[in-house]
Fold this protein.
Amino acid sequence: MATVKQIYDFAIKWCDKFRDCDINYIELFDHWMADECIALGFNIDCGKAFKEKYGLAIYDPETLNKIIDDITDIPLLGSAIYLRWRYFNHWAYDSAEILNPQNRAWFILALSRLALLCQENQFVFKGTLKKIRIVSNNVCFSCMPEPDDEVEQHLTINNDGQVLFLGYNFGHNGIKHKKIRSKSFKIEKEDVKRLFRAIETYFNREYTEVFATDIGNWVMELTNTEGITYKFYGSLCAEFDYEGTDLSNLIREIVGMNDLYVFDGNAKPDVINKITINYHRVTKIKLDQKPKEVKKYFITWDYSECLIIDRESGTLEYIQNIGTDSNITFKYKINDGIVNLLERFDARKLFKHIKGNFEDVIENPNETRDYIITIDYTKSPSRIITGSYDKNGLPEDFLYFVETITNFIKYYNMQEMFNPFVFGKVKRRKSEYIFCSVIFKGGYKSYYYLTDDDSIEIGDLVLVPAGDDDHEVVVEVDNIEYFSKENAPRPIEKTKRIIRKYINDDFAN
């Protein structure tokens, strides 16, 4: 994909060449122009789409001149230029025909329009924003949409909060799109301020836009309070980040329409924002002896657990309700960790398949175990799943889910307060030696080695000399003790020393 600046430079360079009356046709005919077109992402198929859309304008300068102002799709126009050049390079009876005045005029007109579109795109917005108008066209050229497919959306937002949305389907042969839906409503003033501030800030400075072929495009008009309109163009794959928020998502959120194309075509996969699992068990416990004050031989134990994983707050919360006035809560707040955890689950597939129990299963009359799972998404409506808490009643991928959550909790479950290796550790005196007990692979007996490395801990792998030839062996540290020379478990001078820790690079090698 190319930047606007690269396409602009290409258009100016070749427009000047076609204007040069003294140029040798070889310079226009040879592979150089094709090489640059390919490097910019222009392609023949996309050029053919231009021909289908604009007919004779693909080669006739008079026809092109009539519709030139309607062309706003930079990749489409660039690919049409490439296709026209290829005609002279591959199929023309005489390649020198590219120098004919009529053909020169076509290239000059097309390249000038391409440069103008790119030049407009390099403008920055100035003033106070009054109105936003975005036209997003989702037609690509590799496949023909169905007549009823929505392919174009028009969105207008005024600074008073008035919103107008129009949606158009492809229609028959795409000759004329047909309006299929419209909405007119108002949004809150604070939301307008938030959106307009983001758009103003982002587009009042130079930015790098990329263009791609075989993909839809967008055109945005920003009108300021002085009535001046600024135009911006791009392909429907733009990712405009404003203070950590994607502008396409911000517009969808504020307008309240998750299916808007905006700048990215709404092609990003849906993501999970929150998972809530409620587990509920009710058990009837039979009493061996019935107390006088109890009317029944059973007491009921109402027990529940709740797991909440929330992307927005960056938290994982696990709650146990053991009984009346008795509950236990574990809460992990790890912003990036929670985001990574949720992204391990495919929003399209998670908890989609449940085998279900047979109708003739035998239920326990004294106990029920049920669950409710709620999944909140960025785009899709929330899903609620219910059932009995057993293998066939739960989703088929529930085991994978539990293992993933368990590993996540274990990774961050690093308590030190109750760890005897922490509070039971004695600080070493200057006169004491560090004796590490190590165990060789496949063995059970431990051996003493000396070290001066205070960073070695129990469980570390270390490199030690072994045997009469002192060959190097990797062993695990089983225990660490401090002894004075007089109390050493073996003579200092006869005790071998640890060479060093066994580090990650060693594993790689």
In short: Residues 129-255 form a domain with the Mago nashi protein fold (CATH 3.30.1560). DSSP finds 13 helices and 21 strands in the chain. The first strand starts at residue 2 and ends at 3. The radius of gyration is 35 Å.
